[in-house]
Amino acid sequence: MQKIIETDRLYLRQWKKTDFKPFAEMNANKEVMEYFPKLLSVKESDAMALKCQALIEEKGWGFWAASLKDNDMFIGFVGLHQPQYDFPFNPCVEIGWRLRKKFWGYGYATEAANAALKFAFEELKLKEVVSITSCTNRRSQLVMERLGMRDTGKNWLHPAIDFSHPLAEHVLYKITQKDWIEDRR
After folding, report:
1. Is the pLDDT at 30 greater than 90, yes or no?
2. Domains of the chain
3. I need a labelling partner for 4 at 20 to 30 A (CA). Which of 11, 62, 114, 172 fits?
């Protein structure tokens, strides 16, 4: 069953066809994609949205479309994912987000990611959630820290990025169910 997760200001929900165009614009924005190896074409972006949609359909969770409650405007995605790459810490469930530039700086990523963690620990009963980003992406690391996640200090090279690329080295942040519960007391 697909669930809509509600926060004070946002919905995390299944993807709609109307989300695809702003998603493609977001994935073609140099600032939004600064910490990714390349911008996405419309075709690549649509394929990613369809994959997110299919995984939510299959599992009932995933990288949800995030939208404003007052007008359902698509602002990006936030949610949970099981990476298929050969990461040194797999199997795992990661939390991730990507927001349209005009929605940065309002606390939306943290607000939505907190709701996704609540889902991970209370609904899915996960024992741990990880988050990854390039070592140079300090903005995302700050969100991870606001979520109560801790840097493991175990940096690693992302297998989908050429090892000589400046974005190849990644950080690994984690939070356990136990720590998440204790942080909320």
Report:
1. yes
2. 5-183 (3.40.630.30)
3. 172
